[in-house]
Write a structure and sequence with these properties.
Blueprint (H helix, E strand, L loop, with lengths): L16 E5 L6 E4 L3 H11 L2 E3 L6 E3 L6 H17 L4 E3 L10 H20 L3 H12 L5 H22 L5 H29 L4 H7 L23
Helix pairs in contact: 1-2, 4-6, 5-6
């Protein structure tokens, strides 16, 4: 190693820490780091030490909600960086990233929902897809309606406060009301589809083959006797 030159900066690189989600167990784990890094992971991020096949590693508790997992991982990574420790934080765990990650996740969810709709083999599977779309409060359409309500309500308020014409905001209000009615209609369709019997084709595919009917008895060749007049 060559001698340091006078006036040049000196860099101190500590052991690298990777914070990511294990694809098999779903746990948020931290790999690498010194004892100092271990203390920061525990105090700043809530990580706990666990034995592993190649020595102890650090993870977040099993029962921690996803939002708290992301918050803990981000807090730990930030504290490690402030301590001068190199960190790689999985972008999906970083609460400080731009919304592109959440948008891509939403797009993947919609793509998966579309695939489920194309693959639906009976009415109940269709109802399962419609539940994701129009379920009260949690469905895609009700959530979209709530977002639009917040949009036109504040828009109208701003327009009236500024003495401007709220016509566009009122058009959005009327369109939102129509969308809400359509969401309710889809919910009714979903309820009927959930109660529907499986289609005849699906039933035939799932039902066991019926036993063959017994052969009909052969007619007797003996003619009945006739009574004399």
């Amino acid at each position: 190693m060559s001698a340091e030159r006078e006036g040049e900066p000196r860099f101190l690189v500590l052991e690298y820490v990777t914070i990511t989600r294990d694809p098999h167990s779903g746990l948020v784990v931290a790999i690498g780091g010194t004892e100092r890094a271990e203390g920061i992971l525990q105090t700043a991020g809530g990580f706990v030490s666990s034995p592993g096949p190649r020595g102890p590693y650090h993870r977040l508790p099993h029962s921690l909600p996803v939002d708290q997992q992301r918050a803990g991982a981000t807090a730990a990574a930030h504290a490690l960086l402030l301590a001068g420790i190199s960190v790689h934080l999985d972008p999906s765990l970083n609460t400080l990233t731009a919304p592109d990650g959440d948008r891509q996740a939403a797009q993947r969810y919609l793509d998966q929902l579309t695939e489920r709709a194309y693959a639906a083999a009976d009415d109940r599977e269709v109802a399962s897809v419609l539940t994701e779309i129009a379920a009260p409060h949690e469905g895609l359409l009700p959530r979209l309606v709530q977002t639009l309500i917040g949009t036109w309500a504040t828009w109208i308020q701003r327009a009236e406060t500024a003495g401007e014409d709220p016509a566009l905001a009122e058009q959005l209000m009327n369109t939102t009301s129509t969308l809400s009615n359509h969401s309710w209609q889809i919910q009714q369709i979903r309820d009927q589809a959930a109660r529907a019997h499986p289609s005849a084709q699906t039933t035939a595919q799932r039902a066991p083959a019926a036993a063959p009917a017994p052969p009909a008895a052969a007619p007797s060749a003996k003619r009945p006797a006739t009574r004399g007049l």
